[in-house]
Amino acid sequence: MKLLSILFAAALIVSLSLPAQSAAQGLPYTEGSVWSVGFVKTVPGMTNDYYRNLADNWLKMNEAAKKEGLVLSYKVLYGPPANTEDWDIMLMIEYKNMAAMDGMAEKMEALSGKLLGSQDQRKVGAMKRNEIRTMIGGKLVREIILK
Description:
Elements: H1 2-25, E1 29-42, H2 47-67, E2 73-78, E3 89-95, H3 104-116, H4 119-132, E4 133-146
Antiparallel strand pairs: 1-3, 1-4, 2-3
């Protein structure tokens, strides 16, 4: 019985030390930048019109935000939709980390007021964009850099 108790205690010590050893090894990745990703479905035949709108507004905003250090980079990706419900344009904005996004709405609102006009002007622009595209959804994702 004493031998069984010793074996049990030894097994318990070994099993408790395994997670500590795994944790000591660390994660198999480091955290990278954070991306805000939007999925857009353009009205058939209106994709180039939407690109023009992006160049007039979205590009201008992101260039200014990049110069002010609010964003690291941005991208527009195109892929033919897989079905009638699928997106065809992906809008990506890269931020340094999650903390960089604190207060971002207020900062971007101030920037858009300077660059794109009054709230009423921006509402008119938004309504026109809604005629040529639908926002399918979005995600906030973090880049994972494998070790």
